[in-house]
Amino acid sequence: MSTEGPTQVITSVLRTGVIVGGVMALVGSAVLALLRSTDPGTTRLAELAAFAPVGLPLALVGVIAVALALRPSFGRAGLAIVVAGALLTCLHGWWLAPLYVASSPSGTGPAMVVMAQNLEYGDVSHVQEVAGRLDVDVLCLSDIGPDQLASIRATPALARAYPYSAGVTEEGTGGTIVMSRYPLSTTWSSTSGRSLTVKVSGPTGPTSVVAVHPYPVYETQAWHDDYAEIGTYLRRTFGTNPRSPVVIAGDFNASSDNTPFRRIVGIGYRDGAADTNAWYQPTWPAGSKRRTFGIPVPPLVTLDHVLASRALAITNLHTVRVSGADHRAVVATVRRAA
């Protein structure tokens, strides 16, 4: 016959619940770590990999919950769970650490300011206002559909501020436009027409600006194909660890936790967010385009990035809200590497 009173029963149930919840959090963290370490072939798993930073708080909460619930006597199973949770916490922390503690390269000479904005829904006039306020030199505008292309053409202030442009000119969808204060010439366009390279004669000298916008991850095969083409182009044109001035900017439709994005960085490019210790700055979903139970979903994932070759240094990077857009813009200050 049990001698436990109501208080002991309630305490035991709560303790069990905390342990189960903590273990579930650790399992979730482990799944995210696994997806981050591999290249999932299915759409949902590839999308889930982009949320790998959530693995850090999950691991931290899980290990603390289990440790508190099992103390003072852990037992072998409990000790194994706590150690595994601590290792998961360290692993996720190691992946995120560059955003907070990485050493930043120093730059010299005049700056070129680059702004990357997915403009599928954004207000073109507000883009012009924001770019002017931030003294932007080069605009990389992606996801340009017929309406946005018409809006760009109907905004004379934008054309006056950025008289040089290249990219989509027809009434297609999903195209990319680069607009610049300085003369530019087109040197490459991807098969999909969603990414292109221009050479800008700007403050950092002749600089190749690669404006990218791979297919979204839910078009999984096209996403992989686009990334493969971009990677092949970068290697063939600039080589590995390129020493010529190259900037890669845009909506990558991937976070730094997606393997295809890391492969691009691995060719030899600096991630501006890490180089400037910009902290975690998610860019999607912005505004109120995504809602759950009628409540706007805040930005959760960093899909928009600016990278640079080692000939350059990104000395400042931040995100900014553009009215109507479902992505925050990324604005980076680029100088020649010291």
Provide a short characterization of the protein structure.
The chain is an alpha+beta fold and 338 residues long.
Can you walk through the features of this model?
The chain has 338 residues and is an alpha+beta fold. Helices cover 40% and strands 25% of the residues. The chain has eleven helices and 14 strands. The chain has helices at residues 6-37, 43-49, 55-70, 75-96, 98-101, 124-133, 146-153, 156-161, 220-238, 259-266, 272-275, and strands at residues 107-118, 138-144, 164-167, 175-180, 184-189, 196-202, 205-212, 246-251, 270-271, 291-292, 295-296, 304-308, 312-320, 329-337. Strand 7, helix 9 (220-238) and strand 8 (246-251) form a beta-alpha-beta unit. Helix 1 packs antiparallel against helix 3 and helix 3 packs antiparallel against helix 4 (75-96). The N and C termini lie far apart (78 Å). The relative contact order is 0.14. The model has no long low-confidence stretch (mean pLDDT 93). Residues 125-327 form the Endonuclease/exonuclease/phosphatase domain.
Keywords:
338 residues; 2 domains; alpha+beta; six-stranded mixed beta sheet; 25% strand; Deoxyribonuclease I, Chain A; 14 strands
What class do helices, strands and sheet pairing give? alpha+beta
Whole-number tally of structural domains: 2
Largest sheet, spatial ordering of strands: 3-4-2-1-14-13
- Distance between the first and last residues' Cα: 78 Å
> Strand percentage, roughly?
25-35%
CATH architecture of the largest domain: 4-Layer Sandwich
CATH superfamily of the largest domain: Endonuclease/exonuclease/phosphatase
Radius of gyration: 23 Å
Q: Tell me about the biggest sheet?
A: 6 strands, mixed
Query: Can you tell me the CATH class of the largest domain?
Result: Alpha Beta
CATH topology-level fold name of the largest domain:
Deoxyribonuclease I, Chain A
Per DSSP, the total helix count is: 11
What is the tally of beta strands? 14
Pfam families: Exo_endo_phos
Domain Endonuclease/exonuclease/phosphatase: 125-327
Transmembrane segments: 12-36, 48-70, 77-97
Protein name: Endonuclease/exonuclease/phosphatase domain-containing protein
